[in-house]
Amino acid sequence: MQFKNTIFLIASIAMFHWAHAQNSTASNVQNPSSTRYIRFGIGLGDDHPQGMAVKHFAQIVSEKTQGRIKIELFAGGKLGNDQTMTDALQAGKLEMTAPDTSSLVRFTKGFGVINFPFLLNSETDADMLLDSNFGKELLATLPAHRLIGLGYWENGFRNLTNSRSPVTRKADFIDLKVRVMPNAMFSDTFETLGSQPLKLPFPEVYENLKDKKVQAQENPLITIYSSRFYEVQQHLTLSRHAYSAWVPMISKAVWESLSVADQKVFETAMQESTLYERQLIRSRNAQMVGELKKLGMKVTEIDRTELPIIRLSTRKVIDKYAKEFGEDWTKKLYIQLALNENRKLMQGQGNR
Predict the structure, then answer these.
(1) What is the pLDDT of residues 122-138, one digit of tens each?
(2) Spelled out in words, what is the top-level CATH class assigned to the domain 34-346?
(3) What is the mean pLDDT of residues 314-329?
């Protein structure tokens, strides 16, 4: 009998410790005395607006959870590139990242239509599109891929630089040897305009521009400045030929492990950091234009009378990729753009 009592006592103690461990794990998020760390990996530097936005997001989350949840920034590609970090989110090996929308086409084809050539005129147009039902519908497709999209951050418009002459008309694109982002739609766009698109690894672009093997390249303003392309390119055209955005995401498994209250904290923090990021990157871009002028670049824009001609020329590119990205998504895109234009007219902003 004494032996049986001893066995029962040992079993009871073991069961108590097992239950306590299980309860501690399950309540980690809710327990005020514990700190949960969320890693947020990005490809750009911590001083880039993307990195600054992560820090802003982290500060808000920490404040609103009284330090229970800490967001840790891993910048500069330390945890991988857009694709590998997104894969890590799906596998539950990383908590958060913010890939370019173009990298999400492998999950939902509709993300590709955001990059249609000469689609948007301004940052306001971009905000209205991405913050609309259309943008939300795209994000709603991600949970099926074990991802939760929390919004859209701005990467910005891509612009053209070259060493030949100012580019203000469609005719100025003809025979221009331009390095483009390794993306088939970008290559087709410049080829349609009469240019000679070239694919080069980004680290090789500067030297090829310097040696005149390549005459032009296209990138966001911050990249143009930080890469010192002003040293080997005399002309900057604010062509705004494509717009790109990032989607801050969290692993679905991590999201579902958060309490409803903490999910609300993340949503609120993301809304605030999105406003912060967009304002910051636009302020930086305005500064970049001024700095590039001071450094000797001649800055021009596409002539307003030429834009309809250019858009008509690139329409066949859109028609081609509408089939690839989905005609249904393309239809939804243009319906949303029409609704946005009507909204602007109602608000007295129709004339641009």
Answers:
(1) 999 999 999 999 999 99
(2) alpha beta
(3) 97
